[in-house]
Amino acid sequence: MRIKIKLIAIFICFSYVSHSQQNTFIYGSIESNSQYLQDDEGLNFYSPSDNFRSNNYLQLDFQNGNFSYGIQYESYLPSALLGYSEIFDGNDGIAQYYMKYVNENNEITVGSFYEQFGNGLVFRAWEDRQLGINNSIRGIRYKFYANRVVEISAIHGKQRYGFNYSNSVISGVNSNINISEFLKLKKFGFSLGLTHLNRYQKLDAGFGEPENVNINGLRLNFYYKDFYVNAELAKKGKDVLANEGEILSQRMYDGTALQIDFGYSKKGLGINSSIRRLENFNFYSDKLAEGNIYNQKTLSFVPALTKQQDYLLTNIYVYNSQPRLVINNVEQRVGEIGFQNDIFYSFKKETLLGKFRTKLAINFSYWGAIGANFNDDESYDVDFIGKGEKYYQDFNIEIKNRWNKNLSTTLTFLDLSIDNGVALGGPLGVDGNIDAHVGVFELNTKDNKNRNNRFVLQHLWTKEDRKDWLGFVYELGISNNINFFISDIWNYGNSEKLHYYNIGGSYSKGSARLSANYGRQRGGLVCVGGVCRFVPESNGYNLSLSYSF
Question: What is this structure's pTM?
Answer without folding.
Answer: 0.91
